[in-house]
Amino acid sequence: MSKKPSYEFTFSIQRGWVRLPVRDNPGKFARDRKVEAWAAGQARSMLGDSAEPERLNERAQQLTRATYGARARDALHGLVFYTEPDAPGPLAFLDVLRLVPDQQVYPELTTGVLRELFAQPSAGTLGDIDEQQVDLPGGPALRVRRQRAEPSDPTGQSTVMEGVTYAIRPPGLDDAIVVTMTWAALQYGDRLAAMAEAIARSVRITLD
Known about the structure:
With about 210 residues, the chain is an alpha+beta fold.
């Protein structure tokens, strides 16, 4: 990713999203004391001072793991969605990042390149991949909705995740803004996909 972009971008989120401190120390993926302290404070803020210690610790661990995961995906913004502050766990995850052309591999982020990056089947892909070209206020975008099976845990269980990605090409820029939301609650897929669309439509670019 280029260090000095010539633009800024913003987006709007609905109630229930929690912003994660992904950029405070982006190269640290474990034992980050600042993240752990933030997560403990955030858990107490969400659940209240009277919450049981086990509940507070569980919530802090959820937030810590989500932060490390977003950092590993190189997100500029990482967020988790809780339907209520005291919900058992996050319902969805959101990454927003800036994709920069690579002169060696993909010097221009064409529709074909975006399709290759985000709409190709992988080993864990389940079913068909829903791919569409859409026009958003931030620019034309490739929208991809798909399901995948996560690698099995030590017990042999695998989680099916669904997600939708918007790779937005703002006019006049070489970069793309990529908005990706994922969730495991497949029964809420259409509602969450609509939420992802609202966020993608809120992306605004400001040139320096």
